[in-house]
Specification:
Elements: E1 5-10, H1 22-25, H2 30-44, E2 47-52, H3 56-65, E3 72-76, H4 85-94, E4 98-102, E5 124-127, H5 132-145
The protein binds ligand CA2.
Ligand CA2 binds at residues 13-14, 16-17, 20-21, 25, 76, 78-79, 81, 102-104, 106, 113.
Subunit structure: Homododecamer.
Protein name: 3-dehydroquinate dehydratase
Pathway: Metabolic intermediate biosynthesis; chorismate biosynthesis; chorismate from D-erythrose 4-phosphate and phosphoenolpyruvate: step 3/7
Length: 154
């Protein structure tokens, strides 16, 4: 049987990770985050599809396309966290486990970063643990979808 697919979505400006503001977001690039996710996913018996877009419509389309294809969604919605009712509606409609990830602790930052529409559609939220939050999200997702550890004896 093929491994369950988890779609890992990244919103606007996350393509700049590791290239700007390392004091806030760290030095890992988005390619590094993808490599981390791929390594963790393999150990958990998950397949991943890792993507980034700057477009709100594209992000919403990708969420819609998860229906019937993916077992769960890990998403760092970045700047659309606090603005996009369309993204929230898509995540609610897709009816899959959703884990929202933020590299920084949005609750310690400016007030405008603290209200997340995406959280209304999320099963769980991880914030403030750096890019390790993506690895933790995949571990939690494996538990939510009942993925089988490939190292476990059948
Ligand atoms: O902490 C997070 O992961 C955020 O989702 C990152 C967003 C920010 O708008 C959220 O409030 C919190 C920003 C993503 C932009 O990423 C950059 C990375 C490096 C340099 C510049 C932007």
């Amino acid at each position: 049987m093929s491994p369950p697919l988890v779609v890992v979505l990244n919103g606007p400006n996350l393509n700049l990770l590791g290239m700007r503001e390392p004091d806030k977001y760290g030095t890992a690039t988005l390619d590094d985050v993808e490599a981390l996710c791929a390594e963790i996913a393999e150990g958990l018996g998950l397949a991943i599809d890792f993507r980034q877009t700057n477009g709100e419509g594209e992000l919403i389309t990708w969420v819609q396309e998860c229906r019937g294809r993916a077992a769960g969604i890990v998403i760092n919605p970045a700047g659309y966290t606090t603005t996009s009712i369309g993204l929230m509606d898509a995540l609610l409609a897709v009816d899959l486990p959703v884990i929202e990830v933020h590299i920084t602790n949005i609750h310690r930052r400016e007030e405008f970063r603290q209200h997340s529409f995406v959280s209304k559609a999320a099963t769980g939220v991880i914030a403030g643990l750096g890019v390790q939050g993506y690895a933790l999200a995949l571990e939690a997702m494996a538990g939510l979808i009942g993925a089988e550890d490939p190292d476990d004896e059948a």
